[in-house]
Amino acid sequence: MSKQVSLNQEQVEILTGLKADQKFINPKYFYNHRGSKLFEKITQLDEYYPTRTERLILESCANDIAQYIDKQSLIIEPGAGSCKKIEYLLEAIHPSVYVPQDVSAEFLKQSAERLSKDYPWLTVSPVVSDFSEPINIPSEFERHTKYVFYPGSTIGNFEPEDAVTFLRQMRQLVGETGGIVLGVDLHKDNETLHAAYNDKKGITAEFNLNTLAHINDILGASFKLDEFEHLALYNSQQQRIEMYLKSLKAARYEVLGETLSFEKGELIHTEHSYKYTIDGIAELASKSGFKLAHSWLDGDELFSVNYLQAD
Ligand code: AVJ
Question: Is residue 51 a contact partner of residue 152, using CB atoms and an 8 Å limit?
């Protein structure tokens, strides 16, 4: 007799991915509590240059970036989380309003309170919403010129056409007069990229494998982490890091009334992290109603912070 199971949306989404010909898990499932801690550790690894390089650029170029931002500005940050990175720009830009958006209500509230306390002149107006919903700006802030701050090369997680869709939505949000400050990781030699996603301490492997622990919780499943292996490679043709979990043996799992089978060596895709050239960033901009006004790079040209002006 088959048991009737009613599934929630997350469970359906994950099962769909695990039943596909090319299995996949959405990268958002990296970030449970442990995953966020592990990502924090990744950002401190010697091999993982993006976070520290972006900080260096933001700190040293804050005044130049500020030249592009009107007075009386409102800055929106999608997926703001800890609201730490905006602090590199706050003194230089001196915006009137900061609107951090995130899915996690408590975390966002804490971060917003910290900012309000440290920057008494700043109006902090957090928005709790799902990534897929449009961000609503309270109408009292309508007279401010609007800007989006999107650091961390999070844009690299999108497929390029989805990145354009996202940027078009941001263009809607900021209107004719605003812009976006966008952190983008750059295309570079294979070795540097490979090392950044295959660190010696194995933190990136733990981070990738933790996805299985996370979906075990959501599905009530029992995928064994030691039966999978972290795999990250740079596809230089497509200019992207591809991350997978590789099944080390053939296995079958009964999960919520479904049978999931893995072949030995089968890959579950977990992330794309696209790397761009400056020309590529200009192309993203022009396809989404912006023009690339300026790019700031570190001396080794590892990472970029870009100002995209509404066009
Ligand atoms: C936060 C998506 C930019 O792609 O480099 C780090 C996530 N994945 N190591 C990235 C990540 C593996 C990171 N992003």
Answer: yes
Ligand 1 centroid from CA 306, angstroms: 18
Q: Are 310 and 175 in contact (CB under 8 A)?
A: yes
Q: For the residues of 41-66, what is the DSSP string, one character each?
A: HHTTSSS-HHHHHHHHHHHHHHHHHH
Q: Which of 31, 36, 37, 39 to mutate to test the pocket of ligand 1 (most atoms within 8 A of CB)?
A: 39
Work out the burial of residue 219: count CB atoms within 10 Å of its CB; fewer than 13 is exposed, 13-18 middle, 19 or more buried.
buried
Residues with CB under 6 Å of ligand 1 are 42, 50, 152-154, 156-157, 197, 204, 271, 273
Nearest CA to ligand 1 atom 2: 154
* C-alpha dihedral sign at 286, 52, 240, 228: negative
Instruction: Report the C-alpha gap between 127 and 97 in whole angstroms.
Output: 12
Q: What is the pLDDT of residues 18-64, one digit of tens each?
A: 999 999 999 999 999 999 999 999 999 999 999 999 999 999 999 99
How far is ligand 1, taken at its centre, from the CA of residue 165, in Å? 20
278 neighbors 304 (Cβ within 8 angstroms): yes
Nearest to 146 by CA among 182, 172, 126, 124: 172
